[in-house]
Amino acid sequence: MHRRRLLASTAAAAAAVLALSACAPSDDAPDPGADGGATSAAGSDECAEPVALDVWSWRTEDKDTYETIFDVFEEANPCITVNFQAYKNTEYNQILQTGLTGSDGPDVAQVRSYGLLQPLVEGGNLAPLDDVVPALADFDEAALDGARGKEDGGIYGVPFAAQTIQVFYNTAIFEEHGLEEPETWEDFIAANDTLKEAGVTPLAVGAKDAWFVPTVHDALTAAQYGGAEFQQKLRDGETDFNDPAYVKSIQSFADLEQYMPDDVVGVAYTDAQVLFTSGAAAMFAGGSYELAFFQSTNPELELGVFQVPPPEGSALDHPVSPGYADGNWGLSAASDNPEEAETLLNWLASEEFGQMVANDLKQFSPVPGVTFDEPLMQEMWDLYQENPAPYLLLVDYRYGDPVGTDLMGEGGQQLFLGELDAAGVASKIQDGLSAWWTPGQ
């Protein structure tokens, strides 16, 4: 992997990472081994006291694959067993919070990134890893931004995946209707019109699940409002979410509803996935994390990806791929097995694990040195590298209550129901964020 920035970040973050690079591992940190993997906690195949680590996740769809991956760790560390447990995505945050503050919680857990990480850091639920996992010094600074404590700048997780956002399309359907990847906004609209007239749902969107709405909005219109340039203007205090370019992007989102399933607010995210994998819909605007699910659900599905070109007069004159650090592996401060958990965390920062994330889970591992053998992954990564943007409301606006993605999720639903217009949704976001955020601060 080219060690380039995964997301837009500030000069302050860069300085923080340089500082982290100078940190030496503590004397009691596990030996990561010559190849970056961890060595057995017992130091031999004979275990004086075998240890079972409880590892929690929100990735229920990846449970079987993770269990196979952890078999590799257990083979190299015969004194440690990993009990992997995955919980429903929408229930996970509360389950994890309860587990980390109780006596039956995990030793190691997948934790969210950016603002949703902060309550666990501020609550003392996670142990800092700066001096525990030496390999973190070599991670891209922007990947570490999602694992950083806002107040102390410490690193509280090993980043496990980065995601990019773009449009997947069914190449067979495109070929059947004489369509190609759009090079202009007019091309994109014309393709939607052609598909709709042919009785094919152009865009598989499920707006019943509010969390998915801001993902689709950014996939379709991030270039229109300005991507990283707009992010910087917000950070500098030069504008807010009532900015005309942002309002126009929401209006374009509303205009595209005609190409989505009927009663889109009544369509669940999983319904949208089925529409696309079954061939009933031609395009799916979403994250790179969809790839493994799409291919496992329908191995015959022929896929392509593209960035949506912006309309004339947009803030940017080229398309972008929004991206973000998805989450991290955190160490419970209450773990009864901290030494073994640190051994596992060092392995989770190794190239061996990162390559399995790329190959088996088809996720963009942020571990330095990982390569992508899947052609579509490489294409998504190349598109992102050419024209990156932040998944704005997730990266910068989850540090208070209400969070930006929730505001856009609910606002987008109200937009499709006719309860708010584009300006009203923008005002809803700005007013909600004003409870804890001021532009330029």
TrEMBL record:
Keyword set, alphabetical order: Signal
Pfam family name, one: SBP_bac_1
Statement: the UniProt record of this protein carries the keyword Transferase: no
SUPFAM superfamilies per the UniProt record, alphabetical: Periplasmic binding protein-like II
Keyword Signal: yes
Signal peptide start and end residues: 1-24
PROSITE patterns: PROKAR_LIPOPROTEIN, TAT
Gene3D superfamilies, sorted: Periplasmic binding protein-like II (3.40.190.10)
The name this protein goes by in its record: Carbohydrate ABC transporter substrate-binding protein (CUT1 family)
The organism of origin for this protein: Georgenia soli
